[in-house]
Amino acid sequence: xxxxAAYIGGCDGVSTVLGAESLAERHSGTMPHSxxxxxxxxxxxxxxxxxxxxxxxxxxxxxDTFGDEKVESxxxxxxxxxxxxxxxxxxxxxxxxxxRKIVEELRWELDxxxxxxxxxxxxGGLDEPQVAALEDILDGFGIGTSLSNxxxxxxxxxxxxxxxxPIAKKGKFSGRKQALRCEKGHPVKPIxxxxxxxxxCPLCGAKVFGVLQTLLKNGKLLxxxxxxxxxxxxxxxxxxxxxx
Length: 244
Ligand SMILES: [Zn+2]
Prior knowledge:
244 residues, alpha/beta
């Protein structure tokens, strides 16, 4: 479920085999630190990874196991050349320093030596503000903890109407409501189901329409549920409206 929600929410890939299978997508990931630790050297780990994995797997090498990220990246780039797809920095925040400066320096040194094709990925305890602050200089992120422990969206399932009569416990608004969106995707405050006109969008003035649909009736699904790919496409199409 976690992989499914992350994928629908806009992540490009998921790393667990089962999660990817449930989405009918291919799982993705990079080498673990354990490979470099067992082989004792980052370049040896990169060469072993390159030698044994199927050719369609991008060669993304972890460069922060032992030494400096810049030195290790250049060593790996020289060893793998054009086959190196990217490098990943996964240093804990206690040893990381200024990650933006480190990435800028790394990009400079790679470019200077003809390794412009090498992409730079960062992972390790990143949250939304950190991703936003780095997205202009990075090619991708690996996000775990802040997705798997995301803040909860508080909601409750309450009775608000019985046999057509509005009734609710205190603290809740009684009666069925219509959820609304404007034609440009802005969310609009819900209105009572029986309201005559939903009006216009307070943000852009565009026409407003109700989004609720009957999917389940008398315990039976009325239509096939959309695929995760279709839901993801719909989610991403709405994001510009939430960026205001
Ligand atoms: Zn609007």
